[in-house]
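Hi team, as promised in this morning's meeting, here are the two structures we talked about. I've kept the exact order from the run log so nobody has to guess. The first one is mostly here for context; it's the second one we should focus on when we meet again. Sequence first, then the predicted structure tokens.
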Amino acid sequence: MAYEDLKCISLEDVPLNCKCRVNFIDMDFESRIRLYDLGFVPESVIVPKYTSFLDSTKAYYVKGTLIALRKETGSKIKVNLLKEDKA
């Protein structure tokens, strides 16, 4: 399956069930390392799956597991949207 990179946006802005690839994390060193340990490393494919009732957190499918992040954290993770190539 081939994918085409579209544009760089924050992870928080990715619509549910749309694949994206981590580009970089705009946080301090310790926070970046914590996210790396959870699987949010550059080039990882992430899929937003669920959002909380009050829209304060979102659950993401990453490396075979669901991980919830606060809105503030998701906004500091920059990703490229991926579009499935139909050809």
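And here is the second protein, the one for discussion:
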Amino acid sequence: MALPLKTELGEAVAGMVMMLKGENSADVVEVVKERMLQIEKTLPEGVAIEPYLDRTKMVNNAISTVRTNLLESALIVLFILVLLLGNWQAGLIVASVIHRWLYYLLSS
């Protein structure tokens, strides 16, 4: 979607990229960046594409937060199981089964 705009700097066009439901946002951002580079090569001199909002950093921060939280929760669960069961091997087995079950639950 593109909208013509009048600014103090002159004429401009605002565009928005819509992502389909269920798509991988990191992949969509990469494809859009590649396409913008292709389009920018065909623009006349003095005309440029300037991104207003780039979701790459936000997506990477969200993935990093989820990864950190899963690791911390796995360590907490392992510690509590070892504490309650009194055996580190049994705690490790139970903790690995719990996280595999969670993975299968979320992937289906």
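Starting points for discussion:
Helices lie at 25-42, 56-85, 88-107.
The CA atoms of residues 83 and 95 lie 12 Å apart.
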